[in-house]
Amino acid sequence: MALSPQDELAGIPPEHQAAWLASQPDWAIQDMVRGEWWWTGRPEQQPPPGDWFVWLLLSGRGFGKTRTAAEWLVDRMLRYPVDTTGFRTEWGLVAEDLPDAMAMCVRGPAGIARVLERRLGPEKRHARDASGKWRIGQVEGKPKIFLDDGQIVHVEGAKDEDVARGFNWAGAWLDEFAKWKHPDGSWAEGILPSLRQDIPGDYPRVIVATTPKLVVQLVEWRRTTDGSVALTTGSTYDNAANLSPKMLAAFHRKYHGTRLGRQELHGELIEEIEGALWRLDWIERWRVKSIPAMVQVDIGMDPASTGVGDETGLIAAGRGVDGIDYVLGDWSKQIAGNAAARRAWEMYIAYGASWLIVEDNVAKKWLWDVLARAYDDMRKEGLFPSGGSPPIRTETAKVGKKLRAEPVAARYEQGFNNNSGLVRHAAKLGDLETQMVSWVPQEAPESPDRVDALVYAMLHLGKLDRRHAEAADPGKATLPRTELSPLATALPAPYGR
Length: 497
Fold this sequence. Notes:
Helix content is 37%, strand content 16%. By secondary structure, the protein is α/β, with parallel strands linked by helices.
C-alpha cells in the first residue's frame, strides 16, 4: 500500500525524521505545516504525468476520490486564472444531482470549500469582507463558487444530456459519473463540447472520479490507448488509515467475495454482468460508420407513463438490402404528451420510416389520440401527405418484457457467434447500449425505456423474415428504399438532436 510522504516520514525513526526535516527548504516546511496535498496525499491521488485529456479515477468507496478531485480542480484554478485572451477562466463541477454536488463535493469534509480555505483563507461572508477571497453564491437558482479574481466554478446536476450545454470551461470535475441518469449522452452532448476555453501552455482537462458500474463511456475510456486517458485504479483498503475500522469491517462483511464487492471495494469495472441479456462485445464488434440502402425503417416508441422521471424511448432501426438489421439512432428524451408525439413523428420523417411501433397494451385510446392529433397537426403544416391514417403498428404485450426481449438479444448473439453481425449499430448510442448491457431482468423486471423501444422496432423488422418466407405476392411486396431522409443523413452522431 502506497503511503503519503507525511505517513512515510512518520514511519522512520525520530532521529532520521529530524535530520530529514532540517534539510528541507523553508517553503516545503511551510507546506507541510499547512498540510498541502503533495505532502498529505498518497501517490495515486496525485495527477498522473502526460498529455492526457481525461483522468479516469476508478476506485472503491472510501478511496479518497472526492478529496483527490477537489484538490486537482482548485490547483488547476489557481494555476490558470485567465485564458489566452485574458478573460477569467470558468470551471465545471457536475455530480449526479445538485444536493450531492453541494453536500459532498463543495461543502463536504473533503470538498472544494475545505481546499479553498487552506489555499486562500476563509470564505467571504459579505461584500465588504476584505479578508475573504472566495464565496459560494447563486445565480438564477444555480449554485456557483466565485473567486475574487473573477473565476467561477459552475455547480451542476446531471439531470439530462443537456447538462453544461453552452458553457465555456477550462476544465471540469465529473463526480460519480457511473451513477448519472444519462452518463453517455451527458458527456457527448453537453460536457465534452463545453471544454473549450483555451488556457496558456495547456488545454482543458477533466477528472472523472467514480466507483465503477457498467457504463459504455467508462469502458471506452478504459480501453483508450492513445494517451488521451490516464487511468488510476484503487480500492477502499488503500485509504484504510483514514477510515473507521468499524466501517471497513462492515463493508468487508457485506461485499467481500461478491461481484458487487469487486466493484464497490476494489473499483473493478466489470464489463459483463451475469443475467444481462446483451453483452457489450456483441455490439462493439459490429459497430459501423456507413449503412446500405434500407428496405424498411421503423421507429420504436415507448411512451413515458407519467412524464415525471420516465423517458419516452425513441429508437430508429432498419433492415438493409443486405439482410442486416441496423440500429440507426436514439432520440429518447424525458418528455411526454404532445411534445413526445411530435418528436416521434419528427424522427419518423428524419429517418424515412415506414412505421411507428408501440406496445399494444400501452397504446390505449389516449396514446392513439395524442399521436393522431400530432400527426394531423403536422399534416396541416405540410409535413405529411393528406388523407389516410397515421402509420402506427403495435407489438403484442401478452408476454413478459424478458421473453419479448430475448429473441432480439438472441439475434445479436447469433450474429456475434457466427461472425455475421446480424445486428449492427450505425452510431455510438451510449445510453441505449448502457441500458442494454446492464439490464438484468431477474433483478429489474421493468425494462428501461430505450430498451423497450429498441425491442419494439426490432420485433417488427423481424416480421419481414416471415413475410419473405411466404409465397411471393406482388401486391404485398415491400419496395426497397434507396436512402434515408436527407434530414437523417444530416443528423449529428450519435444522439440525433
